[in-house]
Specification:
The chain has about 190 residues and is of the alpha+beta class. The chain contains 4 helices and 14 strands. The strands form 4 sheets. Strands 1, 2, 5, 6 and 9 form a 5-stranded antiparallel β-sheet that branches. The protein has a 5-stranded antiparallel β-sheet with strand order 13-12-11-10-14, with no helix packed on it. Strands 3-4 form a two-stranded antiparallel sheet.
Length: about 190
């Protein structure tokens, strides 16, 4: 039979301080930046993934969230608590499934940071130098592998319109996210 002190010692040995993990925090619409500021003011580690964009309207915001409505916090859940984020201004709480907050692996956060660095280093848009008539290839989605002609970047979004060749030489207008396109060598498509 173990003594009370032996049980207490074994409990302290088995208890390891929980590590901080990344969690997804939901924000109110268009309040990601304000929520990030609130969390930073509280001394929390926050990752607000955003893109630098060149809007058509010069008075528009030049920073847009990469994941609208979401940001990431790096916390020790046992120290901070799940309900703490319901009381932060501009917050809708942590993303949870069956009442369990969704953890994000460190590798995923590093991957997102790396991707955003590449996009922002390229001037904020991956395809900022495309001109009307340029040949592109759709990289993923239902039209992956199809070649198309770049038509126009849609105002106020990260989407573009391309002309997709269909049967009998007809072209269909298709709106896709700009990041799904890759420039191809110039060649007559139609």
């Amino acid at each position: 039979m173990l003594s009370a002190s032996a049980v207490a010692n074994s409990e302290t040995i088995n208890q390891t301080p929980t590590q901080a993990s990344w969690y997804v925090l939901r924000s109110k619409p268009q309040k990601e930046e304000s929520l990030s500021s609130q969390l930073l003011a509280r001394g929390l580690d926050v990752f607000y993934p955003c893109l630098h964009v060149r809007p058509v309207n010069p008075r528009s915001r030049t920073v847009r969230p990469y994941f609208p409505g979401y940001l990431f916090v790096h916390i020790n859940m046992e120290q901070v608590g799940f309900s703490e984020f319901h009381w932060v201004p501009f917050s809708l709480g942590l993303l949870a499934f069956d009442g369990i907050p969704a953890q994000i692996p460190e590798a995923a956060i590093k991957g997102i940071r790396s991707l955003l660095e590449k996009i922002n280093a390229a001037g904020g848009e991956l395809l900022h130098d495309l001109k009307q008539g340029d040949l592109v290839e759709i990289q993923s989605g239902p039209f992956a592998g199809y070649e198309a002609i770049f038509d126009v970047r849609l105002a106020g979004s990260e989407r573009v319109r391309v002309l997709l060749k269909l049967l009998q030489g007809r072209a269909a207008k298709l709106e896709v996210p700009a990041n799904l396109l890759e420039r191809k060598e110039k060649r007559q498509l139609f």
